[in-house]
Amino acid sequence: MTFLRDMYVVFARSLRLSLRNPAWVVIGLSQPVLYLVLFGPLLKPLAGQLGGDAWRVFVPGMLVQLGIFGGMFVGFGLIAEYRAGVIESMRVTPASRVSLLMGRVLRDVLVLLVQASLLTLVALPMGLRAPVAGVIVALLVVGLLVAAFSAASYAVALTLKSEDALAPLLNAVAIPVLLLSGILLPMALAPGWLRRLSDVNPLKHVVDGLRALFRGDLWSSSSLLGLAMTVLLVVLGTWFGTRTFRRESA
User: Fold this and answer.
1) Rounded to two decimals, what is the model's pTM?
2) How far is CA 126 from CA 66, 133, 199, in A?
């Protein structure tokens, strides 16, 4: 119970900070919406090659992109708090070091789930048609994805303690992740060598899983593999994050 109380205190504080500056929520949502408006219509001529519905291919990719980048860049806020002495102040409290991480991660998951839900609603008048159950499960998977990248981002930020070092590192990771996960276009359209290269990227299977969920294939091999890869990323991200927070607080 102490751990849950500590985590809630950190979560409530972090959420209040986000609500005081809602511009970041709007900014985080604006880029995927621009992709929907400006890039999505270009896929309609390819509907036949995309399984008959371009939006059920494109929107899940945008949700994964939102989850990846929304979680990946939260570490910048932690560096600012570290520089301001907030992290050191929290360390002298009896709060669990893991709760200091998980409270922040829970806030990130909530904010990104709101953004992902709004993005899905924006896509409906554009032509998206997907089963409600599949969309709900897909949003839960996106929430898990955010938790994985958020925990890892905080760990890296606490290790580097510098925006100048964190920014190029994240960009170096983000570009190949974006290109090899099939977020914008399915990797089925790629040549054989590129498909084989993308198969080693777990996020490619997450994207394929979400697209299967948007088709209503809740128990297909693609959706189950995507869920398994997401759980694996959550385990790795949480382990890395908690290990770093405990080590830095020792």
Assistant:
1) 0.88
2) 19, 20, 31
